[in-house]
Amino acid sequence: MKILIPLVVLAASSAVFAMETDKPTSSLEGSSWIVTGLAAAEPLADHPVRFQFDGKGGISGDASCNSFGGECAIEGDKITISKVRSTRQACDEPVMAQEHNFLVLLASTETWTITPADELLLRGPEGEIKAKRQPAEPQN
């Protein structure tokens, strides 16, 4: 009977861990990401989309052709990205189309999750952005 009790505790703690992996597993504060998927499309290899969360309610990055910035409010797995603005440089049509798609998806984002493989999923009614975590840049 003494052996059965630790097995029950182990099984219960494993079930709790499995439930927790469906929830956001990490804070977005101070994290940097490179986009690996925009709805059903892969990003252009020579024009990556990158962004970071500053931990102070801001999001910024490179949308393909232009730099962008905005405000970000996170509560649990809910996220609101607003007041997005960008520079106004012109690029080739495929790059501009990718940038437009990214900014539309970003502005419509409603939920976020980080998978066990450390992939960020931003989801909204317009579609999903998939991104891979990037190492933090050194601070000067």
Give me a quick take on this structure:
The protein is α+β, with helices and mostly antiparallel strands. The protein has helices at residues 4-20, 93-107; strands spanning 32-38, 50-53, 58-62, 67-75, 78-86, 111-114, 119-124, 127-134.
Question: Can you walk through the features of this model?
Answer:
The chain is of the alpha+beta class and 140 residues long. It has one domain (24-134): Lipocalin, CATH 2.40.128.270. Helices cover 23% and strands 37% of the residues. The protein has helices spanning 4-20, 93-107, and strands at residues 32-38, 50-53, 58-62, 67-75, 78-86, 111-114, 119-124, 127-134. It has an 8-stranded antiparallel beta sheet. Strand 6 (111-114) and strand 7 form a beta hairpin. The chain is globular and about 40 Å long. The termini are far apart. Residues 4-25 have low confidence and may be disordered.
Short key terms for the protein model shown above:
single chain, alpha+beta, Lipocalin
Give the biggest beta sheet: 8 strands, antiparallel
Name the average pLDDT: 84
Kindly give the count of domains: 1
Shape: globular
Q: What topology does this entry show?
A:
Elements (H helix, E strand, L loop, with lengths): L3 H17 L11 E7 L11 E4 L4 E5 L4 E9 L2 E9 L6 H15 L3 E4 L4 E6 L2 E8 L6
Antiparallel strand pairs: 1-2, 1-8, 2-3, 3-4, 4-5, 6-7, 7-8
